[in-house]
From TrEMBL:
Residues 14-96 form the Polymerase nucleotidyl transferase domain. Keywords: ATP-binding, Magnesium, Metal-binding, Nucleotide-binding, Nucleotidyltransferase, Toxin-antitoxin system, Transferase. GO terms for molecular function: ATP binding; metal ion binding; nucleotidyltransferase activity. Pfam families: NTP_transf_2. This is DNA polymerase beta domain protein region.
Amino acid sequence: MMSLDKNIEYRLQLIKPILQEKYNVRKIGVFGSFARGEQTGKSDIDILVEFSKPIGLDFVELKNFLEKTLGKKVDLVTVNALKPQLKEVILSEVIYQ
């Protein structure tokens, strides 16, 4: 089983109530190099998010909030935005919080 960087995991758990209340986040998970433990100092954090209802332009605000909270550049995507050829791989490695 893959394990997530404890600092990232802790920060995501800490802000989970804000994510749910302010941004209507139903599920949030990390995939990519941080999920595999292969990140470098230059790695961004790939985050997969599902919403309980559409958030429109708040998506950009959420991305900025996550970058500020996690101290790293964030690549924020929804399941529907995943490229079909990558979807299965990403969904198999995502670590949900």
